[in-house]
Amino acid sequence: MRALQLFILVLSGLVGAQQQALMDYLERRLLAIEDRISLWHEQTSRYASELREFKQQMVAQLEGLDKSKEALRSELDTVGTRVDRVEREMDYLDTQNGAQPCVDVDDKLVEQQVTVVKERNKAKYAKLTDCSDMISSIKAMKILKRVGGTKGMWTKDTGSATGKVYILNGTEGNTVYEFGTVRDFTSSQGTSGATSVQLPSAWRGMGHVIYNNHLYYLKQGEEMKLIKFDLQKNIVVDSAVFPAKNQLPVYSLNPETFIDLAVDEEGLWAIYATQENERHISLAKIDAKTLDVEQMWDTPCVRENAEAAFVICGTVYVVYNSKLPSRSRIQCVFDVSDMVTNDDAPHVYFPKRYGTHASLKYSPVEQLLYAWDDGYQILYKLQMKKKLEV
């Protein structure tokens, strides 16, 4: 009996030891499984984070590709437009400089072109806006500074409220001075505080204009060429030969300007003169995107004693030197929509000043005139009224 009890005790000890060993083994296995689960969790979290970062990178790259695609499409459209214009200019040059045996044919082509232009000019102008303002008076005058020579041009961007001020000093050159604000311009010593922008070709006259971050200026050579220069990218984005022969200075008091570019609520305009209509000033509407001339008019405004002009709501105002000392006045107007006649011209005198206006640039954004007068940069605030109220 005692031996049996001893056997049972031994057997119980063996079973207990086996159970303990089994428990220890299971505990080790569970700990190992927990370690693996923890490792898998860390790896899964890392993979999910990397996947999110990869997704963000792919989305950013896709957005960049979309922008690049749009930019490429825009450049291709621009190239296509320029190719079309080059073809038209080559056709135009062919009609002007054709070989002698083909003179009769070329004359017919020229006659056809003249006929097309005349018919287009007879068409009623299709306004792009409902603007019907005209000048009533000069409300105020402010002299900001004197910098540069007696002649030049200064302005803001006439198509957007960027606040930047641009200076083109003199009657020819290839440097544009850019100030961040009017305060930067007035507080700087000369042009020392400006950013200098170098153009690839020289401008001539005072007929330039800044419109929607682009400088439009005239390059004078055998032919008068209109240049469109991107002020943000500092590159020429387009150019076109102005389709008018035998051009003359548009203002007798500023003979350096053959084409005076202007911007109003309707867009881009060109004020010019030719030998065909040598006593009077002509007007053209230009597509600012393509530089195509959309329509042309002959105005009743004479060149003699004229110093500058500008356009507001499709009406060109020509400023003449008055008989009064140091005074100028608007003496002739021409409205492309025939809402205002020259008899309705406002009797507007400019305040007493220093000399002759070298340039007058209207800003439709601010309804201000930017004037260059004997080296002084002047602002004229305009009082407006509706054309129907005349």
Description of the molecule:
This is Olfactomedin-like protein 3A. Keywords: Coiled coil, Developmental protein, Disulfide bond, Glycoprotein, Secreted, Signal. With 390 residues, this protein is of the alpha+beta class. The protein has two domains: 1-40; 129-386, 6 Propeller (Neuraminidase). It is 31% helix and 37% strand. The protein is built from three helices and 20 strands. Strand 6 and strand 7 form a beta hairpin. It starts with a helix and ends with a strand. Residues 95-111 have low confidence and may be disordered.
Q: Give me the secondary-structure category.
A: alpha+beta
Determine the fraction of residues in helical runs and give it as a percent range.
25-40%
CATH level-two architecture of the largest domain = 6 Propeller
Shape, principal axes of CA atoms: elongated
Major beta-sheet overview: 5 strands, antiparallel
